[in-house]
Write a structure and sequence with these properties.
With 306 residues, the chain is α+β, with helices and mostly antiparallel strands. Helix content is 32%, strand content 13%. It has a domain of 193 residues. It is elongated and about 85 Å long.
């Protein structure tokens, strides 16, 4: 009888902990992205500024790492200008995300802008562009939303490509990421110094011959350009070391790569362990009460016999 009660209490504890975890996770996923979840003082990594990684399905190939870069692309790419029509360019600024948030995200596919069917994890520490109300990812220009949007597509790419990890040079070898050109000089020049391609830390991760191809000579034939927005969109230089010879940089295809990047397993959240510990404490307290009750029931008949 005691064994059955113990099993029942253990099952109840597991069910309670699981239910609490699901409730907390659901509340965390639905938490809106507001000014309380971001902070000023955002910093862009030197590698990202130097290499300008072009994440798959980016609204802005190569990203926009400053308000000036966002305004520059907005004035030259009609698709970006339409997508950012309600974004106040004059109030644009950089912020850093202080807590994980789950958001609907836009993406560019076949020269059209769509939104995801479900929320994606935007990790803590990512640098965002905001005008105080609207938010976008600096690394790709993809906008974020707390609510679902009607502009979706059944051809939505897999989450593994829409949620690639933060950029590291070695990511160029394992993920379908191209390189975009650096922003124009003058107003768009970054305040931080550009990381040289000849840096010993970057050399082991770049494909053979990439350094020579990226350091274009001052004179010679002009590099091949690709304009994702058509005649009105900005042009982007292709990287011969990362694309097939004789081909220009195309928009990401709808097919899934033969070797998709590995997806990191989700690490249990500390909140789940706390909830499970509370459930175990409650179970222990209940078992203690049951044990004291059983001892009292066993002593009472002997006292009556005396």
């Amino acid at each position: 009888m005691n064994a059955r009660r113990l099993l029942l209490v253990a099952i109840c504890a597991v069910v309670s902990a699981t239910s609490l975890h699901i409730i907390v996770r659901s509340l965390r996923q639905s938490a809106p992205l507001t000014r309380h979840a971001v902070a000023p003082g955002a910093k862009i990594s030197a590698a990202a500024r130097a290499l300008r990684p072009n994440y798959p399905y980016s609204v802005i190939p190569g990203g926009a790492y400053s308000p000036a870069e966002l305004r520059f692309v907005n004035g030259r790419d009609s698709l970006v200008r339409e997508h950012y029509s309600d974004f106040n360019m004059n109030d644009a600024r950089l912020v850093v995300l202080t807590a994980d948030r789950y958001q609907y995200a836009s993406f560019r596919l076949n020269n059209h802008i769509f939104w995801t069917h479900h929320r994606l994890l935007i990790p803590k520490g990512e640098v965002l562009l905001t005008d105080g109300q609207n938010y976008a990812r600096t690394r790709c220009g993809n906008r974020l939303s707390n609510t679902a949007k009607a502009e979706t597509t059944p051809l939505q790419p897999p989450d593994a490509l829409l949620s690639l990890p933060p950029f590291r040079p070695e990511l160029l070898m394992t993920a379908p990421i191209e390189l975009a050109p650096a922003p124009p000089t003058g107003e768009l020049a970054q305040e931080n110094p550009v990381l040289p391609f000849a840096s010993p830390r970057l050399a082991p991760y770049l494909p053979t011959g990439t350094e020579a191809e990226l350091q274009l000579p001052e004179s010679g034939p002009a590099p091949e350009l690709y304009s994702p927005g058509g005649a009105t969109g900005p042009a982007y230089r292709t990287s011969p070391g990362l694309t097939p010879p004789g081909s220009s940089l195309p928009p990401p295809s709808n097919s899934i790569p033969l070797s998709p990047p590995p997806i990191q397993a989700e690490v249990p959240e500390p909140g789940s362990l706390v909830l499970f510990g509370v459930a175990l404490c409650v179970s222990g307290w209940l078992l203690g009460r049951m044990a004291r009750g059983n001892r009292g029931a066993a002593v009472r008949p002997k006292e009556g016999g005396k």
